[in-house]
Amino acid sequence: MFKKFPNNFIFGAAMSAEQTEGHGTTYKALTNWDLFYSKYPERFFNNVGPNITSDLMNHYSEDIKLFKEIGLTGLRYGFSWSRLFPEGDYTKPNKKAIIYYYDFIKSLKDNGINPFMSLVHFDMPSYLIKNGGFLNQDYIAHFTKYCQFIFQEFGKQVEYFVTFNEPMVVSECSYLLKYHWPLENDFKKMINSIHIMNLCNAIAVQELRKINQTSKIGLVLDLNYPYPKDDTNESDLEAVNNYRLLKFYSYSHPAMKGCYKKEYLELLKTLKIDLNLTDNDLELLKNNIIDFIGVNFYRPTRLQKPKVKINLKGLKFDQFFEEYILPNAEMNKDRGWEIYPQALYDTIMWVKHEYNNFPMFITENGMGVSNEEQFIINNQVNDQYRIDFVKRHLDSIYLAINDGANVGGYFMWAAIDNWSWINAYKNRYGFIRVELENQKRTIKKSGLWYKEISKNRGYDD
Ligand code: BG6
After folding, report:
1. pTM
2. Average pLDDT taken over every residue of the chain
3. Ligand 1 in contact with 294 (CB < 6 A)?
């Protein structure tokens, strides 16, 4: 059977500024990643830090041609705040950076590729980090000026903006799990950072609408769909419920419903955490609902009841839910993630039911694989595993669309091999391979396959 996707469905791919630009061709402020790397280079795979990248700024003309060649009709990318405002003075933007982003976006559009531009993708200028990052209310004032500038400058060019990429990952990794700078371990700080990002998200919606009624704006969430170990066991179900409240609803409700979910606030109350919500906060959230939700989906989450009790003095996730690995699960061993495309279908249907068929894009999904050079045949990475992975996830989207879900496109992570935060180059994700020694690019087998899918707007099963 031929699986045909809607005519306007975007066959895209994704990447981010910090992971592809490196130092680049213009001056930029240091970022949270530079600070982290300068202190603990050993925390990064093979000691490779944020400056070793696919050097996008010197190669973007060539790369955009390749993006066209593999059939992309959309590209998720983003601005680097540190590059646009190296000094944190919003009256003094970096002119070279503006020219670069302007030209990049123009070249995409000239090649029939619709740009989806994020304001923040795991990056923060060092001047904000030194100020306390998300824990200082000043972040909001800076963010407001930053987003106003972006919308004024690029609003006419860009149809789709994204505020934050995976803000829950940022909150938990920065303030609870010690994977992102500033490597803290404080549940309350994590919850506060969620609130700050929710307010900023709403402010961005408000600011965009003041000056531009045509562009759309969304939030990208990582939704690793949770399943209980035993769906007849009350405690396992409660673990799933807690997971959803803390990791999904904390962001999804403010963005798509304009308020916090009652049960989330009740849970915080039992934890003695007060968001100190003001009337202004409530109004801001209520009046500024996003236009679309971006779903990043890589894997399901398997959950069971926690073994430890809630301890208000040292709150941790495992007091609310415990993750486990399903015996005999199909795994991407290189990344340690289960492969289960059904969970993408379930995620989409969850958004559909929970949020009244909210417009959505699958903004990331992909497979990171180690030592891809072992699969090179005749100068090409023969990544049949990636083709299978993507196809099986597209199957889930196809099914969901046929069941009435409002999914406008799919963005494979990643358009091109890139630097993966603390995993650096342990795993490669791209449709396009990059040799780091000489920056040579080659399209992988999956890239050529995607070209056909995009051209035919579907595939034969
Ligand atoms: C997503 C991020 O969480 O997953 C990307 O938005 C990231 O920036 C991708 O690179 C893959 O994860 P990792 O940790 O393997 O790079």
Report:
1. 0.98
2. 98
3. no
